[in-house]
Structures are given as structure tokens and as C-alpha cells.
Amino acid sequence: xxxxxxxxxxxxxxxxxxxxxxxxxxxxxxxxxxxxxxxxxxxxxxxxxxxxxxxxxxxxxxxxxxxxxxxxxxxxxxxxxxxxxxxxxxxxxxxxxxxxxxxxxxxxxxxxxxxxxxxxxxxxxxxxxxxxxxxxxxxxxxxxxxxxxxxxxxxxxxxxxxxxxxxxxxxxxxxxxxxxxxxxxxxxxxxxxxxxxxxxxxxxxxxxxxxxxxxxxxxxxxxxxxxxxxxxxxxxxxxxxxxxxxxxxxxxxxxxxxxxxxxxxxxxxxxxxxxxxxxxxxxxxxxxxxxxxxxxxxxxxxxxxxxxxxxxxxxxxxxxxxxxxxxxxxxxxxxxxxxxxxxxxxxxxxxxxxxxxxxxxxxxxxxxxxxxxxxxxxxxxxxxxxxxxxxxxxxxxxxxxxxxxxxxxxxxxxxxxxxxxxxxxxxxxxxxxxxxxxxxxxxxxxxxxxxxxxxxxxxxxxxxxxxxxxxxxxxxxxxxxxxxxxxxxxxxxxxxxxxxxx
Amino acid sequence: xxxxxxxxxxxxxxxxxxxxxxxxxxxxxxxxxxxxxxxxxxxxxxxxxxxxxxxxxxxxxxxxxxxxxxxxxxxxxxxxxxxxxxxxxxxxxxxxxxxxxxxxxxxxxxxxxxxxxxxxxxxxxxxxxxxxxxxxxxxxxxxxxxxxxxxxxxxxxxxxxxxxxxxxxxxxxxxxxxxxxxxxxxxxxxxxxxxxxxxxxxxxxxxxxxxxxxxxxxxxxxxxxxxxxxxxxxxxxxxxxxxxxxxxxxxxxxxxxxxxxxxxxxxxxxxxxxxxxxxxxxxxxxxxxxxxxxxxxxxxxxxxxxxxxxxxxxxxxxxxxxxxxxxxxxxxxxxxxxxxxxxxxxxxxxxxxxxxxxxxxxxxxxxxxxxxxxxxxxxxxxxxxxxxxxxxxxxxxxxxxxxxxxxxxxxxxxxxxxxxxxxxxxxxxxxxxxxxxxxxxxxxxxxxxxxxxxxxxxxxxxxxxxxxxxxxxxxxxxxxx
Lengths: 502, 481
Description:
The structure holds 2 protein chains of 2 kinds.
Chain A: H1 7-23, H2 30-54, E1 63-73, E2 76-84, H3 89-105, H4 114-133, H5 137-158, H6 163-192, H7 197-203, H8 208-225, H9 234-241, H10 244-269, H11 271-297, H12 302-321, H13 326-357, H14 368-371, H15 373-386, H16 393-406, H17 415-439, H18 446-449, H19 456-474, H20 477-501
Antiparallel strand pairs in A: 1-2
Chain B: H1 3-8, H2 10-29, H3 36-55, E1 60-62, E2 67-69, H4 71-97, H5 105-121, H6 125-143, H7 150-181, H8 186-195, H9 200-218, H10 226-233, H11 236-261, H12 266-288, H13 294-313, H14 319-350, H15 366-369, H16 371-385, H17 391-405, H18 409-435, H19 446-464, H20 467-476
Antiparallel strand pairs in B: 1-2
Helix pairs in contact in B: 2-3, 2-5, 3-4, 4-5, 4-11, 4-14, 4-20, 5-6, 5-11, 6-7, 6-11, 7-9, 7-10, 9-11, 10-11, 10-13, 11-13, 11-14, 12-13, 12-18, 13-14, 13-17, 13-18, 14-16, 14-17, 14-19, 14-20, 16-18, 16-19, 17-19
């Protein structure tokens, strides 16, 4: 398959076409620029659906692989290797799905420097797709670092009052982790002689002690991105200051790059270290779940509340992944998607009310249900999904995670799952509290009485997400089917490692 | 003198001759045809480039072993002449604008390049010293080129005094090495060490002094004190040229002397290199954070980058990776040169009379008003930090690979953490350009625009298609040892 006809290359690089077209518009041609970006991102979504149709869900291996020699450095040949399997297919779809929705949400919210905004946004999509599809560590690192730059600008130029602080903090935090990962990647290149992830997985044979160090170096990059407690402190700043579309993508996709990194690299490349460290990872996850929930409860700013709730929700994902069994990992992967959908929707909803009232303080609202019933109903569904109500998507992910964590040999104790369950209850507390403050009670503020309900454009951004919330909640089987063989394959690697250890 | 002697230093002979003729021509011609000296200097450099290019691939020794012509020297000669061309492009409009358009700028620049070319070929400590002086003396004059501006005069004087001081160290080091081995030829020293007739202790002291002298030239901490003042005071195109050319030349000498000729001293010198490298990376990046003037900031950044290149020297003595060490240093010098010239070109575009437009806050609003310049500067800053896809990243990648192969994990960790530190101050420029409102003024100058745009494009594209560059570098070190 040649370079440009490979569907994975197309889905990754197609947004660049949009960038090129937009470069030729003038700054004032806002309408044309917006439409170009939207159409390009919709076509990209179309390509991702095409990728799905080509995807064979029964095959545990990488599919649609493209593997070309790329850069020669002295004795090394670095390859341009892309591929998709059950671990990444859903994330690719999620990225392609959330991008047009985010772009549509900026229609009236972003008026300044629209051209630059759309260029950065499309570049960001390229970076994110590349991260999920790259199967060569060097290529992965290039995409991984590349996502930093557009996101840095999205926060720094179009963000809130503290945007520059938040943007620089975001950049430095993320880079701190990734430079350590770079050294670990170099180590693998020197001593294992390859950057190709599938080759490295088969090769194995890294001494257990070294695996531990490499796990920590890779883990530093990913744990900051997830973010795991106690490395989360960049997240509230970045989220609160970012523009709505930036927050949606940040929560929806960028954080998943961290959890995906653990799944794709840490567990299969350093399985012994993963098994050994599983209880510690579970501990940090549970602390994150409880801490995130507790801090969320004390927020008065809705956006901050949603931001901290991400720390809690991503804790569940990490707990599931490091249960290192089928239910846990499958639940973890599905929960990545769920969080992308639910929290993405929550940020969109917060953005909508902020655009109308220019405040996000809970105390400024109350009784909104009476003036915005549609908005209220949709928010209720999303809120319930985020707290894991059965029948909605959150439950479909959290339940297998907890099940997996209870029975996990690697974690070794059901206490972790027990405390994590407490987090589900806490989520209900802070989310319902938020809903109550916003929508229930008397409509006693004059400013709120004239607030308009959702426009058609806003409905178009929210409704697809709500449909997915119901779909995954009621019938998650197709999603599990997509990932099952790949997870099965990952489990054999883990089992081999546990056997070698004990 | 045989024909081989002659051809091996042909680039040097040609350029010295051309510069001397140019010096004379300048007196008679400049008043008649505007810019003729600059054009002729450019022609001279292009010709030198062509000669050096055709010499690529030969490997000979000439003048009884005092001169070497190999891939290493050809590579550096191409780098130096290329730097000279950019140096002319940056200076042409600037000199006029600042009212210091004197013809001797170009011959002086050429003489300095002659020194660098010779240094790249030096295989004898005496030639090293000679070349060092030949490259430095014109630079002293150039640093003071904006006279009677006191800052420029101060820069010249400071550079001269400390340069002379450093030269003294080198001479004394050469003398002691001669005392230890009875020869100043690098091959002679290697032979003397191998046969056991050399006094290793004395040789160590001698080479230590040479290291100090060259440490001044490439601005290693703690021999860096002159750098910010000189870089700040000198006319900006001179600074840009100095930051690339003089540094690369200094490293050429370090690589040739230590990695190729003195691996026997590795046991004693590796810890010294380790500390110098770590200290330089750390101090350079740390002090750069508090700078408010972009010239000073870039001066400290150039110190820090000397520390990165120094990392590759730490692996010296390990035979299997010495060629990787040299190759990664050479490659880093190239990436640094492109990025550095690009960044300085933007600085020159914004610089106004009497040092206006050099504050970091003068970059506010550049992204909105001059998107192309700002985008170019963004690319250069990212390349300095080492964010892919830029040349700076490829350079760091190869360097860190060498360091890890040598087994110096902690030095590599210090390296990456200090580059994290550097991200903070490079991003300050970006923050100012894109996230603050302002009304910066740039001076229209086609040549400078060309340098920034081509530089930015090169930084990105050459990083994605870098295989030819890497091949070129490996060929350059092929027959060095």
C-alpha cells in the first residue's frame, strides 16, 4: 500500500489539507474559514468510519499497517510505522468524532483570530491521530510532543484571564514527563535495537530491574498526561483557562493519550514491571478517584468541578487497566471513550451557559430548568451518565472496571475496588449537587430569566453525544467486540510475565 | 611543497587571496558601485564553498603532517563558509541602517573564516594556535564595528582581553605538551604516548590548559563571563556569526585534539568534561531565564548549547562510539547553526537604532502584525527547545543517543531536565509574540526575510527528511581516525 492511499495515513494527514486551504484565506473571512475547518474535520470523521469498515474485529493484530523506512541515524533505521488494532480503533473514532463537534461549538464563541484558531485545531487533530496510530516509538514521540504546541496556543491565546500561566504550565508539565520518556525510548533503541512496538513486544527479554526504570520513565510522561494523583495540578488550570473547544478536546482526547500510553507501551513492553507495580498504580488511582471527587465537591466554579471530576474518572480508567485482567482492561478502554463523551458533553454544556451569562459560579444560577428545559434535560442525562447510572454509558464502563479490580490477581486486594466504589457514590453527590444548584430551586436571579434555550447549532453539538451515551449504556456489546481480541492478546503477554515473576 | 600540500589547503589559499584583494578593491570601488564589496565577498565564499565541496571525500595529510584534509574538515569548511554567506546577508542591510556601512566589514569576515577553515584542518598544535588567532583577531575588530557606540567598543575590548588571555592558556598548554612528548604534531603525540616515551602527567597539564583556552572560545561555564557582554555589545550580525562560527571552530579544535589524539587521557579528563558539560547546561539555561534583553538571552542560550555539544565529548576514550560522538557533535553544530541564524535574523529585523527593539517585551504582538516572522521565530524557539518536528530535536536525539550509548545516564537526565528549563525562557518569546497585544516595528529587508523564512522551512523540512544529512555526517567522520 502506498503512502497516501493508506487509510490510516489519510485519517491522520487529511486535516493538513484543511490547514493548507485555510492559510490562503484572509483573517476576516471567518465564515469561510469555519466552514472549511468543519468540512475537513467531517471528512476526516468519514475516513475514520471507512477505517472502521476495513477493520476486522476478529483479528487481534495490527491492521492496515504501513511500514516504511524513514530516517537513518548512523546504524539505526527509524521506520514510519502506523497500524490500528482493538486497543486504538475506538480512540481514533473518538478523536475524529469530537473534533467536528468541538469546531461547531466555537461558531460564536471564538471571534478573535479565527484563522489561527482553526489552523491550530486541525494541527492538533493530526497530532492526536498520530499518537493513537503510530507503532514506532520515534514516530509516536514526534506526534506526542507535537500535540503540545497547538494545545499550548489554544489555551494561551483564546483562554481565560490566567491563560498564559496555564498554557506555560501545561507545556512544561507535559514536557517534563516526555523528556524522560525520550531517554527510555533511546535506551530501547540502543539495547533492544528497535523502535517498533510490535517487534519490541515480541522481543521482550528486558531484565526485570531495568523494566522497572523504563516503566517509570514512560510512566512519568503518561501519568502526567492522565493525570494521576499527585501529578494532576496542571489540569485544573489548563481546563479552567482553556476555551470550551479546547477543554472538550483536552478532556475528551488528550487525557486519553496518557491512559492509552500505559495500555500500548507500558504494559506490553514492560509486563513484569507492570505486574509488579500494579498495586501501586491501583493505590494512586484510588487516591485519585477519592481526591478528585472530594475536591470537586468543594468547587463553586462549574468548569473547575468538571475538571476535577476528570481526575476522579481517569482514576477509574487507570484502576481498570492495572487490574490486568480482561474485565478491567476492557472496562478501562470503554471508560476512556465514555469519559470522552460525557465530560466532553459537560464542558460543552458549561460553555453554552458561559456564553450566555459570562459566569460559571454556581451561586449565580438556580432554577434554570424553568427557562431552559431542553438544556436542563440534556444536562441531566449527561450528568447521570457521568455518575454511572445503569442504562447509561458510565455504568457500562465502571462496572467491569470494578468487577475486574475486585478479582484482580495483580492488584492482590479487593480493598482498592472497595474504596473505588465509594468514588461512584461521591460522584453522585457532587454531580447532583451541581445539577441542583444550577437547575432546581427558585429562579431568583433577574439575569437568568431572559436566558434563551439551546439553538439548533448547539443541539447538533450535544445530541450526537447523548445518542452515544444511550447506545453505549444500553448495548455496549459492539464496542467490547471491537477490542476483545486485542485485549486477549495483551493478556497473554501479561500472563507470561506473571509466570516468569512468580 | 608538493601538489598535495597545495590542493589540500586550496580553499584557504583562495579565500585568503580573495579577502586581501577585496580589501584593496574596497578602497577604490565601493564609492562607485553600491554593495559591490558585499557581492564580491559573497562570490568569494561561494567559490570557496565549491572548492571545499569538491574536496569532500579526500583524505590526506599535508605539510609534513601539520595539515589534514578529510571529511571532518570539509564538513566544517562547508559549515563555516555557509555561515559566512548568512553573515553577509544579515549584515548588508543592517550596516547601512545603523550607519556603520564600512567596506572592511566583509574582508574582515572573510579573514575570520580563513582562520576557521585552517582550524578545521589543523593537525598540529602550533597550527591550532595560529588558526585560533587568525579567526579571533578579525572578530575583535568586528565586535567593535559599531564604534563610537560605547557598548560595541566595550565588547571589542572585553573580547580582545579575554581572548588574548585564553590564547595565552592555549600557548602555554602547547608548550607543556611539547615538553611532554617532544612534538606538537597530533600524530606525533599519539605515537609518543603509544611508545611510552611521553610524560603523561605533563601532557595532562598541557592539555588541561588547552581545554581552558578553548573553553573560553566556545563559552563553557565557568569560562563564559565575556559572552553576554560581547554578544550584547557587538553589532547583531557579528554576534550571530560569532555564535555559530567561532563556537563551531572551537569545537572543531576540541574534537580533533581530544577525541582523535588524546584518548589516553580519557580516564582523567572524562570527569572534567562531565562537570563542564553539566555546569554549562545548567548555568546557561538558568541565567537565561531572567534576561529581559533578547540578545543577552540568546547569548546565554548559546552557552547552554555549548554544554549540550560538550555532552558528546564525555564519551571520549570509548573507541566504539567515538565516531558517533564526533558525528553527533557535527550534526548538532549544523542544527544549531541553522536555528541560531534564523533566530538572530528575526532579532535583526526588529532591532532599531540605538538598541531599540531588543527587549523581550518589544516582541509583543508580533504574531498578529507580522505572522510570517512570528511563525519563523516560533519554529526557531521550538527547535532550540528540541520539540519535534524540528532540526533541534533531531540534533538532541542523536546527542542523547551518544551519551546513553556511552553509559552516562545521569548526564543525559541532566541534559533533558535543563532543556525543560530552557523551554521556559524560549516560551517567553512565544508568549510575548502571540499572547500579548503590542505594536512592534520591523525593518523591511529582503535578505533578512529570506534568511528567516528559508531558515524556518529548513528547520522543519530537514528534520522530516533528515536521512541525507545524517549520511553526510557519517561520511564526514568516516576516515577521521
